[in-house]
Amino acid sequence: xxxxxxSPWARxxxxxxxxxxxxxxxxxxxxxxxxxxxxxxxALRPIDPRDLLRGDYxxxxxxxxxxxxETGMPQGxxxxxxxxxxxxxxxxxxxxxxxxxxxxxxDGRIALKGRVTGVPASxxxxxxxxxxxxTFFVPEGQGIEIERxxxxxxxxxxxxxxxxxxxPLRLMADGEVLLKDSAF
Length: 184
Fold this sequence. Notes:
This protein has helices spanning 2-6, 8-36, 142-148; strands at residues 38-43, 50-51, 55-59, 66-68, 82-89, 95-101, 111-118, 126-130, 135-137, 154-160, 166-173, 176-180. By secondary structure, it is of the alpha+beta class. A hairpin with a 5-residue loop joins strand 5 (82-89) and strand 6 (95-101).
């Protein structure tokens, strides 16, 4: 084995394979969620910024990012805790938070995995949760158009894996696809 690694070509090849694996793992994870996850539609409030290196994107503010306390949730949650927010579609097909769990549900319900970013100071407040769904890259110039749309018209369709991982699939307005997210 050491004779094989003595060759500079073998060392370069090993380094290249290692780099490809490190690049491919996050992409494979995202593709798995896209292909095998169940779709849910979320209501949101878009804002349009620009990233000089990556182009235009829309910051998405999913309504389920703020979960009201009357929704069932575990006691003693702190900022940084992992949670699973169970969602169910309403009459319009929009998935709304119905429960917050400290572990994935074992009963087949759809739950998005997130991280608590803020715990309410009072009983009338809302638990803030980050799901990693806050950005959606768009072709240059289209972000401003999306930003100007009324918030109640814009929806985000996401894929949710059984373990709670989620990835954006499509940005919708009035039931029509505005943009599709590639897995990359």
